[in-house]
Amino acid sequence: RKEAGNMKAKLVVELIKAHSGNDEEKFKSALNQLASDEEKKGNISLSTSLIKAYDLTTKRNSNFYQSESVSSLNSQNIGFLPKDKDSTLELLDIIEPEVKLSDVALSEKTIETLYQVINERRMSKEFFDRGIAPTNRILFCGPPGCGKTLTANALAGELGLPIACVKLDGLVSSYLGQTGTNIRKIFDFVKDKNIVLFLDEFDAIAKKRDDSNELGELKRVVTTLLQNLDSLPPNVFLIAATNHHHMLDPAIWRRFDFSILLELPNNNQRKKIIRKHIGEPNFLTSSNFDMLVILTDGMSGSQIRTFVESLIKHNILAGSSSQISANEIATVWLNHTTLFLSENSEDFVNALKNLNKNGISMRDLEKISGIPKSTLSYKFKKQGGEYL
Fold this sequence. Notes:
The chain contains 17 helices and 6 strands. The protein has 388 residues and is α/β, with parallel strands linked by helices. The chain starts with a helix and ends in a 5-residue tail after the last helix.
């Protein structure tokens, strides 16, 4: 106890010195230590009060509320980031987004919806004057790699707002009741800021409460989440993302203004992704570009990016500064799509046949796969259909 008292006294002395010397960084550091120390002792209320007292003072000095358009990190007082009590991990990261919607390959319908949201935000005064709140809650659903996180960042970039990305490893605690406490900390932190709050892997804290495999703790977490969603002010723009929307609690859906499904990219979207990542456009002939578009059908945006980057690496390692050939495309594509397939499997043969349909000759397929032409011909005939 005496040691703890001495430690606290030292921190108070540091606070006074920093304040007298007008050293804000040292002041914040000492205050953060003091608040963290109180939180570890279980004095969460005191810890929160210390941080809020600092936030209130700095807010007054920076005229935080002078305009909704003043929203960058430099113009807002972010203060100390909330932490998990036991692990001391910060519960979120705050970043300034550097992408816009033009950087993301989205369907026309999705782009139209998002621009409506942006325009609502820009005309928020007119909405409030008519007694209507503009959209400030969006749920992105869809398979992994389809751009949910990138789209969230792009939307924040269009809105001119910093984005608070919740860190799941810090949020979900193994200690009873702590996850709910962490959720409250996050919502308390953002409620007085013009900011985008991004909850990725949303299903981890918003699962159906009727799941018999889950303990009562999850039900309490979902209830806490719903309560905080209901009290979220309009200055906070909430974006959640999940790969498993079928797992969400039914009560979650009505808390969002829009639910947007981001699916596997269509033909036009794949073209945009390939152009973005291929670099120098002259590296591809128009016919090889078309081949890439066809061969990436069924891939997510993330998989297309990885495939195109692998193609460029293959070209560089081959010491080639010329155009990427159809054979290079076929080789890299085959490696990507058949990594875990046996050469005798039907799926492997189908992949080779797909390349053949896209203009890769039997002779080149023999070089790429190491399977004799005669064997390939036999396997193709066995499956039926024509081949080149």
